[in-house]
Design a protein that fits this description.
By secondary structure, this protein is α+β, with helices and mostly antiparallel strands. The protein folds into 2 domains: 2-160, Ribosomal Protein S5, domain 2 (2-Layer Sandwich); 168-274, Alpha-Beta Plaits (2-Layer Sandwich). It contains 9 helices and 12 strands. The strands form 3 sheets. It has a 4-stranded mixed β-sheet with strand order 1-4-6-5. Strands 2-3-7-8 form a 4-stranded antiparallel β-sheet. Strand 2 and strand 3 form a beta hairpin. Helix 1 (70-81) runs parallel beside helix 2, helix 2 crosses helix 3 (126-136) and helix 8 crosses helix 9. The longest helix has 16 residues, at 104-119.
Amino acid sequence: MVTFPNCKINLGLNIINKRPDGYHDLETVFYPIIIQDVLEIITSQDIDLINNIQYTASGLQVDGDPLNNLCVKAYQLLKKDFPQLPPIKIHLHKTIPMGAGLGGGSADGAFTLTLLNQKYQLDLSQDKLMGYALQLGSDCPFFILNKPSLAKGRGEILSEIELDLSQYQFLIVNPGIHISTGWAFSQIEPTRAFYTIEETIFIPIGQWKNILVNDFEKPVTQHYPEIGSIIHQLYNHGAIYASLSGSGSTLFGIFPKGPIKLPIFPKHYYIAQVD
């Protein structure tokens, strides 16, 4: 059985305060983007599989111990409550850049939960799946809902919103710079934004440039001037709105439909145009 985990971008991101548990309360809009990985799960008859699961990957290189992959963790999470789950083989083909602010790993984990639920008829409701997804990561529940959503708390308190940007196209640019999420949060001094994202997101998109803010953008572009240069290039080439996604390093520009005169980026950049 095959599914296609997609990524997301953040439209604005306000860091509100640091919590006693070490996390931060934030406000953002998650917007799904159709750049997709490919995830396949098959039942295995191999009783010698370690922990009843075999995980393989192709495409972009997935770093780290395979046992820590969110797809594997998703299976193990459900296996505890549904011991009847058979041994499986998972293959993941990666096209979404990792550690890039696009939520690709979170999407893979969440889509694994959904696919296991469908394939093995576990009859889990959306709310139950979102509860499991939260155990994998703060933004994993979004990929169970997978619709434009206002996110609060750690990113797990979701409210679906009526936001349709299908009349525009997106240019996604990843310069391959790794930005530590911990470092990025350490650069933020939480302050009360003049406009909340909940208010701003429904203002006409032509006005977003000066008021829909990602709090990570200022410290990240100061530390990595190359990233700030990309934002300027996107605007200079006709973007209505351009910003950082999450803590970066992926950036995106929102353009009117029609031909885009693309900026000239180095060959090692990841660039995707999405209608």
